[in-house]
Amino acid sequence: MGRMEIKTISEYNYRKGQKNGYIIITDKPLKRAIIHRTTCPNLEERYLKQKVIDNNNKYGNYFWITNTIEADELHAEWCLHCK
Fold first, then answer.
1. Three-state DSSP state, 13
2. Is the overall model pTM greater than 0.90, yes or no?
3. What confidence tens digit (pLDDT) does each residue in 57-81 have?
4. Is the pLDDT assigned to residue 1 strictly greater than 80?
5. What are the C-alpha distances in Å from 6 to residues 19, 25, 65?
6. How far apart are CA 64 and CA 69, in angstroms?
7. CA–CA dist 7, 48 (Å, integer)
8. Could you state, in order of their start, the residue ranges of all structural domains in the chain?
């Protein structure tokens, strides 16, 4: 399926409800990406709102992926909680 960018709160909430995927959050200033399981307690809607909606992706992006191969392409590191 590939990587899908998450651009809205409704899409984010839908993807968080998917138990078979992962969410990657990129951080442009730090030049890093973190991969989370969709059940991770560190994923909060307010962070998506701030990064994606309020700041128009200036500081990073949210992506939904179905397998960790996509995470490798972004050089994503595992969230410490999800590891």
1. helix
2. yes
3. 999 999 999 998 888 888 999 999 9
4. no
5. 16, 10, 10
6. 12
7. 9
8. 4-78
